[in-house]
Amino acid sequence: MWLWFSKLGSPRWFYELSNKWLPWLYVAMMVLMSVGLLWALLFVPEDYQQGQTIRIMYVHVPVASISLACFPLMAVAGTITLVWKMKLADMVAKSVAPIGAWFTGLALASGAIWGDQIWGTWWAWDARLTSLLIQFFLFIGVIALRSAIESQDAAAKACAILAIVGAINVPIIKYSVEWWNTLHQPASDFSMDPVAPNPPEVWVPLLIMISAVYVFFVIALILRTRNEILQRERRSQWVIDLVSREKSV
Amino acid sequence: MPSLQFSSLAEFLQMGGVYTFHIWAVYLLFAIFIGYNLMQPRMARRHFIREQKRRASRDAELASKSRENINS
Q1: Nearest-by-Cβ selection for B4 from A43, A53, A219
Q2: What letter does residue A50 receive in the DSSP assignment?
Q3: CA distance B44 to chain A (A)
Q4: pLDDT band, residue A227 (cuts 50/70/90)
């Protein structure tokens, strides 16, 4: 168990393992994304209230729900950094911050565009929207904090603490639609009933899109973490060998 | 069984006509989001390799120069 744990913490081991994973992840993403997008754009029936704009859901919901996974991931990685001083955990924490900012930004933007149609306004100080905007600023804050502190170890600790404290916002975002009855609708239930308001023909493609975007998130995170590994281990022999094997570009 | 919702390409691009811009704007942003987050790490990696190669060749050059100085 401890051997496995210390191996997992080895950046080189992760780098080499991810070489094997990446091709499969790309294939999975391409398949899920093609099926999900074609289904969402071409086959999902018009909504009886919103018409064609129901198709915005197949981008907005996956991106928004995965944006909520980024902060807890960063908090867990931060905890591992603080408790076990695992280098790889801090590299993951650093890599997930800009991705989380992108996810949150797109969730807000696609939500605003959708809101303009269903609510008649781009923005409202609704509980869900406001708490998600705070998450966006928290990601920007973590990125800024890291770049402001010169010492790598001190930056890792400070960011870990901010990530752990900031994670309190995630349950607030998640339950904001239930705690406060404002503009944003609560999550819908999936139903097997074909005449329910949310039948399988609506949510099955949504599940496919959510898995596609999840795989994309994992790929983006692995790619950034690999770069971070190379950067921090650039003086070790295995990276020097790896660089010399690469073709000149 | 799900059935095709549009009978022509023009109808598909129109997306019902009223909110054409809204729908395609979201999908355009989604494409930019996917593209950027896959391309940015690739560019960064290429930049890193180029930088390290340059550094390695400069170090090798300096080492051979200092050997020459010692020999002469």
Answers
A1: A43
A2: T
A3: 7
A4: very high
pLDDT for res B43: 93
Most A-contacting residue of B6, B9, B21, B30 (CB-CB within 10 A), to test interface: B30
Neighbours of B54 (CB within 10 A): 11
**Residue-wise burial string across A203-239, b where 16 or more C-beta atoms lie within 10 A, e elsewhere:** bebbebbbbbbbbbbebbbbbbbbbbbbebbeeeeeb
* SS3 state at A199: coil
In three-state secondary structure terms, A51 is strand
Provide residues of B within 8 Å CB-CB of chain A. Answer: 2-6, 12, 15-16, 18-19, 22-23, 25-27, 29-30, 33-34, 36-38, 41-42, 44-46, 48-50, 52-53, 56
Q: Where are the domains of chain A?
A: 24-41+50-248
What ipTM is given for this predicted complex? 0.84
Structure tokens at A197: 């308001």
The closest CB to that of B22, out of A41, A116, A201, belongs to A116
Name every residue whose Cβ is closer than 8 Å to that of residue B26 and which is 6 or more positions away in sequence. Answer: A56, A59, A60, A109, A110, A113, A114
CB-hemisphere CA count at 13 Å for A62? Answer: 28
Q: How many CB atoms are closer than 10 A to CB B2?
A: 14
B2:A116 CB<8 A = no
Residues A87-106: tens digit of each pLDDT:
899 899 999 999 999 999 99
